[in-house]
Amino acid sequence: MRVFDPHIHMTSRTTDDYDAMYRAGVRALVEPSFWVGQPRTSVATFVDYFDGLVGWEPFRAAQYGIAHHCTIGLNPKEANDPRCREVLEILPRYLAKDGVVAVGELGYDSMSDAEDEVFAAQLALARQEGLPVLVHTPHRDKVAGTRRSLDVVRESGIPPERVVVDHLNEVTVSLVADSGCWMGFSIYPDTKMDEDRMVRTLREYGTEGVLINSAADWGKSDPLKTIKTATAMLAAGFDQSVVDAVFWSNPVRFYGQSERLELDADVPDRQGTTFAGNTIERGSR
């Protein structure tokens, strides 16, 4: 089985996770920029973080034969912090980089006026740069946040087929299915969506325009949830070709709209391989 995880926060994971993902069949992924769990206090910390997403992390993934891409944006939670507003000024230089395949994660956390401004500004950047958009739907007031996100996307003029609205569940999926945007689902051990609920949702709404991710971050999560959901689909009677479409062809079609996907990541000889003088190896035994 070959899998493309369209949303996973590998900066939060270990090299053992890369190894386990490769062994299970993951061959490509997209890592969205996001909130790192602690408030950042200046734009300089974002510069270091974005540099890691386009530099060190693709290097680390390549050591395990996985093609790494990312999305760049100012996340909704930190859009409310005036200290982070200058991030909008540095985004164009990162959105022009080869490994950046979308703008995101964008959207709402608490649906404040500041989030409105930052969301609209970044949608304008996506139009300017010709990139797809990854929209994060809020954990609170999810229905209202999803409706508002779709309204803002519509007002931006970006074609819906260039937008994925993520973290959907049974309550919000119909809103996005009717919009023409791609439908994103994050599979977690205890929250948002699990494998069996995902299978039932696919039976009701079909597999066209669906992206399924493991999202795995610094919280309780599992980087193999894509594989486990694919296995659940097969056990439920979905054809192998349909499973392949959901976990490979669909993310390739969506992020391929950036014209920047590079999916040939051969497993390299790690001996002596470095990035900026650094290596994932830790010397001989």
Please supply descriptive tags for the structure shown above.
globular, alpha/beta, 285 residues, 40% helix
Question: Can you summarize this structure?
Answer:
Helices cover 40% and strands 14% of the residues. It has helices at 15-24, 43-54, 56-62, 87-95, 113-129, 142-156, 173-177, 195-205, 225-235, 240-255, and strands at 3-5, 26-32, 67-72, 100-107, 133-136, 163-166, 182-186, 210-213.
Shape: globular
What is the CA–CA distance across the termini? 34 Å
Mean pLDDT: 94
Beta-strand fraction estimate: 5-15%
Q: How many helical stretches?
A: 10
Helix/strand-derived category reads: alpha/beta
Unreliable residue runs: none
Q: Radius of gyration in whole Å, from Cα? A: 18 Å
Would you report the number of β strands?
Answer: 8
Q: How are the strands of the biggest sheet laid out side by side? A: 1-2-3-4-5-6-7-8
How would a textbook summarize the main sheet? 8 strands, parallel
Question: What is the H/E order?
Answer: EHEHHEHEHEHEHEHEHH
The portion of residues assigned to helices is: 25-40%
